């Protein structure tokens, strides 16, 4: 049996008296596209921050390809091949689009904290940057200041920076939040293509996106995973229906219909 | 014994003076996030205003009106200067007050001259209050003690017993919440800045004749005020009080100790004639606050009693 | 795909001629200016002013590696300037001792290359002090830099054998082997030394901005969180930048050591740290050349205006506050805006707007200068009176107050109107 790409075991996180993550256990296989859904306040963002190093776990373990990463600094986790995007665009807004992606590329290509090289002469970095920009269709906007990009393009740039380092576990936090219908479709196609062959962990509210993309879905409610299964099975799951009262339950059924 | 009692007394008074000076900055810093570089310049203004007013009328008039004047100057600075810079962030605000300190220092030099002015202790209090171990203790120092304690009591009363005080207390620990409560934030900021400056001004009125009133007094006190605020901790007046007392006592005792490094570390083979060995403890006194500042920021960035990191 | 990417790579990075125009040409112009200045036969005073400017240019540029490029506000940058300078002065002493004594390494070390020693000294100091200071940017960094500066400058007065007490430590630059035929005796030869190192300093700092570390320092300034999620430790980025900034400050210190042949503990204190902050900020921290402008202007003000008006620090403070409040881009930002306006669609209109604004500013300056100078003369009580252009302006003269009030009101009116017009257009 292969080692899971990401393996979370009995993970807990409390902030003072607030017990946000209450024993999450989850294995994600290499190459799997896994979505986490759940009502607001279920702890999805907290879980994301725990895995990517933003928070220290209170207890439990997080293993990346068998190696414990719980409580490591974000930059160490990133270097081990796990990269994440943010719910709100979190880009280097004083730089151009090209420079943004280049920042994502530099470390992974071994240039680290180098102070003896001219970035202008790093042809491998430039080639990689161009490839990434091409794969997310931002080539023609490469020279624009990132802050001037339209919202949807900023979200795309966010994804581009995330995949730029060549990590094989990619975590996307609501990548289509705030996008129009057509923008969402485009984003989904782009994510599928750009994360081809990689392990993908995604938090998303748009059920269309989730059921379209995910191989498996986990449902997080009040800090616990109440079900992990294939999309079809999740639709039929009684506990999930209970958790999703109202609109979102309709959304699930609607997609099922 | 003699040294200890006098140092204790002087240390407490110096500590209280430091607290008077820094309490305003703690208020300003905690609520507005502005580490006012010019805070000690307002302290200096307080001393100079008091000098001019007491020349014209009396010290007692100055005691009341000099802090009010300083507070007004502070409020104007906030309204016409700081507010403009606010949108550019805290670093811009810090830079603004840094320039302001330059400006106030220079204006003071032009108006009152470059040398110390003769700001005297009022005659009514210019007598030795009691004698200890054959040395006389000036009454004015004890008066300083009482003014500081009165201010402390007044501050405590306002913060804990009035509506405005409760709002300020809430704002100290949760500065972002004030706006949500439906208060006029710019006006609160202006008031807090003005009151903070007035407190520094009051410290100036008391400290100017206790110590000395010259154009360098702002520059000398400026960094020490920062130390008190940072060491005490963001949002904590109690912390500022504690830090001021510790600093006041430490510095006063260090000055009073008649010892060299060689006396203390002689067992390590340190020679009294060597450079390191001949350093006196007293000469280290001015370094103590900054040692505290650096250590606290490195080891405990939230300060002694602060509720959040800087 | 890689084919297309390789092709587009060329279009992505600036073309060779663009690079040449934007990067090489300004550096060549800078070098040419430095080289041509002696042709005009500057006076001794002019030379000493130019030399001071050279030192301050490198110092201010090194400061901007922190404030402008890495977003680190330091109140103690003179510590690294001073420690580098002291290292150079001591090395100068060693050269002197070695050349009259038994030789050895220092006997063969040219004074011309002392700025290397300064760089090493500054960088070493940065490496020792930097790590704990760089944990966080913003206010904590500013406060630690302040505390460290106070501690080091206090220590400077305490350890006489290293820092020479109040008198400082002096040296003699005319020992050891000569380089490029320069004895470094006469001041015009010192100019070549300063010009050389000013250029090296600026070139070095420019090259630094082009490295991966230089780029990531900007990224960390703008978004430390994101920098962490692309594999960089923000503290380490800041720390390394801090060491380099310390090194270049030390280089400037080494230049200063050779130029003045003396260093005193004053050089470590808060005053020069504040001055370099003013230079960089007034010049413009978001522009590479900004600190150069600031260093030139402030050095000029320091040496020329301090002779003319004792209130020059007041003028400096006013200038700084005006820049912080109304022109955060500094002088470079103002010139940049003017340049963009002239190249825009409507150069005439932008020129007119500029003329109006400058008129307003000049009017207000007339008023303020009169007020300040009149007050200075009055407060000095020597019976002197401010007499510009043959006018007699005592504190109790009607004309004086007219010269203060009328231009002030007119200036404020013009500026407010200009501001309204601007908003109307936008």
Q: Unreliable runs of chain A, pLDDT <50, ≥5 residues?
A: none
Low-confidence stretches of chain B: none
**Biggest sheet of chain B, strands in spatial order?**
1-2
Sum up the overall morphology of chain A in one term. Answer: globular
**Major sheet of chain A: size, sense and barrel closure?**
6 strands, mixed
- According to CATH, the fold-level topology of the domain at 1-80 and 213-257 in chain A is Rossmann fold
Strands ordered across the widest β-sheet of chain A: 6-7-8-3-9-10
Radius of gyration of chain B: 20 Å
- Which percent range describes the beta-strand content of chain A? 15-25%
Instruction: Kindly report the average pLDDT value of chain A.
Output: 84
Which oligomeric state applies?
heterotrimer
CATH top level class name of the domain at 1-80 and 213-257 in chain A = Alpha Beta
Largest interface: pair, residues per side: A-C, 50 and 36 residues
Rounded mean pLDDT score of chain B:
82
Total beta-strand segments of chain B: 2
Order of helices and strands of chain B: HHHHEEHHHHHHHHH
Output the helix-strand order of chain A.
EEEHEEHEHHHEHEHEEHHH
Q: What is the number of helices of chain B?
A: 13
Q: State the end-to-end distance of chain A.
A: 36 Å
Protein name (chain B): LIV-I protein H
Organism (chain B): Thalassovita gelatinovora
GO biological process, one term (chain B): amino acid transport
Transmembrane segments (chain B): 12-38, 58-77, 139-159, 188-212, 224-257, 277-299
